Write the structure tokens for this entry.
Amino acid sequence: LKRPFVFINSAMSADGKISTIERRQIRISGPQDISRVDGLRAESDAVLVGIGTVLADDPGLRIRSESLRRDRLNKGLSENPLRVVADSMARTPVDAEVLGPGCLIAVSMSAPEERLSRLSERCEIVKCGAKRVDLSGLMSILYERGIKRLMVEGGATLNWSLIAAGLFDELYVYIGNLLIGGRDAPTLIDGQGFSMDFPMLELSSVERMNGGALLIWTVNREL
Ligand SMILES: NC(=O)c1ccc[n+]([C@@H]2O[C@H](COP(=O)([O-])OP(=O)(O)OC[C@H]3O[C@@H](n4cnc5c(N)ncnc54)[C@H](OP(=O)(O)O)[C@@H]3O)[C@@H](O)[C@H]2O)c1
């Protein structure tokens, strides 16, 4: 499969939660980490999230720093990376921050036509997968469009699907200095979980940051 280099970036509490039990976004990292994430966006060709994250957080997924946006324009790139949402049933609200030029919603063949026609006024739509977005299909489509470096910004369910399908290469995890708890609060990776053949990682960097730490893990396909 020809696909982009895929890395997941996430912030979690010291107990591995990425939001609260109410799925409410809370501040896990600090200013240094926020600008690090901005830098990662600026170096990416596209940013991908799941519809759960759009509904919970309504992220804009654009680069915050004006100078990073200007650098991209000077290099002949688009001001922001392509913003992509995996949204099988086209549930993205028409007033979602992510929409607008430079946004692509990946839907399945089962997405209702009337939602698609409303959404298509605000973004581009691609169909792949019968009932759910076929992530390997989406990767091929993105690769064909020149996306070589894809940043995944969650959430828990999309992270799981990508990892379970072997569609990721690197994991950036910021571990913040707080505890969230709650059995049903989203973790870095939810989904079904592995019972065997656990993906193995190699630790490539550890850095203290904003009272917590940033870990960079690479997939170790040899283990
Ligand atoms: N701390 C952080 O770094 C961070 C970052 C992002 C999000 N979050 C938190 O994570 C939570 C959201 O996570 P979430 O697990 O609810 O949602 P999510 O992973 O953002 O989105 C999951 C949804 O994506 C859609 N999807 C489409 N194709 C898929 C596929 N092949 N595999 C998996 N999902 C697919 C599914 O809905 P359909 O079937 O309708 O398509 C699925 O329910 C929020 O509480 C948010 O605050 C935290």
